[in-house]
Design a protein that fits this description.
alpha/beta; globular; about 230 residues; seven-stranded parallel beta sheet; 8 helices; two-stranded antiparallel sheet
Length: about 230
C-alpha cells in the first residue's frame, strides 16, 4: 500500500512526519539541528509554551526558519490556564520566544476544568482574527470536545496520544478522518514495534495522521522521514 506523503492543515500541505520538541533546549547545537531537520524534509515542528520551560520555543525562534516549516505551539496547560487572560499572556510570550508575529498553528493544550471550553477557544479565535494565530487546534480532547469547539471556531488539527499500543482515541481519529481534520499523534513510538514499523502503521492507519516523533538526533529524524517511502 502506498502512503500519501502530505496532509492538509488549514490552507497548507505538510509532510506527514513532523518533529516533536518537548526535550529541546536553546543551545547552538540544537538550533543547528532544527535547521538541518528542516533541510532534511521536516515541514512541521511541534512545540508548546511549557516545553523545556520555554527553551523549546526559544530555540525554534533562534533557528530563523523563515516559514520553511509550519510551527505549531500550544497554551493553556493546567487548571486556570485556559482562561482568556492567561491564554493571551502565553500567546504573547510564545510570539516573543518564536520571534514571530504569527504562530502558524496554535493548540489549546488541555481543556481547562476551570474555564468553559467555548471561552478558551473563543479567546484563540480573537487572536486568530488579529492575525497572531493562523490555524487553531485542540489537544488531549474527546469527540465531544471537538464538536463543542467547532461551534465556535474551525479546528484544523487535533493532537492526542496515539500509537500501536495506545489506541484509546480511536473514535477521535475516526472523527477527524470523516471531518478531514489533521490528527497528530504524540508519543507515536512508545510501543514494542521498531520505530519505522510504528510510524508506517500510523501512516497507513489513516491519511489524516501526522505523527510527531521527538528527537534531538538528525539521523533519527532522517530515519523517521524514510517511513514515508514504505
Amino acid at each position: 500500500m502506498s502512503i500519501s506523503r502530505t496532509v492538509r492543515i488549514g490552507d497548507r500541505e505538510v509532510t506527514r512526519i513532523g518533529l516533536g520538541t518537548n526535550r529541546l533546549t536553546n543551545t547552538p547545537q540544537n538550533v543547528d539541528f532544527l535547521r538541518a531537520a528542516v533541510d532534511a524534509g521536516v515541514q512541521l515542528i511541534d512545540t508548546a509554551h511549557v516545553y523545556s520551560s520555554g527553551e523549546s520555543e526559544a530555540a525554534i525562534g533562534a533557528a530563523g526558519l523563515d516559514g520553511r516549516a509550519l510551527v505549531a505551539s500550544k497554551g493553556g496547560m493546567g487548571a486556570g490556564n485556559g482562561s482568556p487572560e492567561r491564554l493571551a499572556a502565553e500567546i504573547e510570550e510564545s510570539l516573543r520566544r518564536l520571534r514571530t508575529d504569527r504562530i502558524d498553528l496554535y493548540y489549546l493544550h488541555r481543556v481547562d476544568p476551570e474555564t468553559p471550553l467555548a471561552e478558551s477557544v473563543g479567546a484563540l479565535k480573537e487572536h486568530q482574527e488579529r492575525g497572531q494565530i493562523g490555524q487553531i487546534g485542540l489537544s488531549n480532547v474527546t469527540v465531544e470536545h471537538i464538536e463543542e469547539a467547532r461551534r465556535v471556531v474551525d479546528v484544523a488539527a487535533v493532537q492526542n496520544a496515539f500509537n500501536f499500543a495506545e489506541r484509546r482515541h480511536e473514535l477521535v481519529l475516526e472523527y477527524c478522518e470523516r471531518e478531514e481534520i489533521a490528527f497528530v499523534p504524540y508519543i507515536p513510538l512508545r510501543t514494542e514495534l521498531a520505530p519505522r514499523e510504528a510510524l508506517v502503521w500510523l501512516l497507513q492507519r489513516s491519511p489524516v495522521v501526522l505523527p510527531i516523533p521527538g528527537s534531538l538526533n538528525l539521523e533519527h529524524v532522517k530515519a523517521n522521514l524514510a517511513a514515508l517511502d514504505a
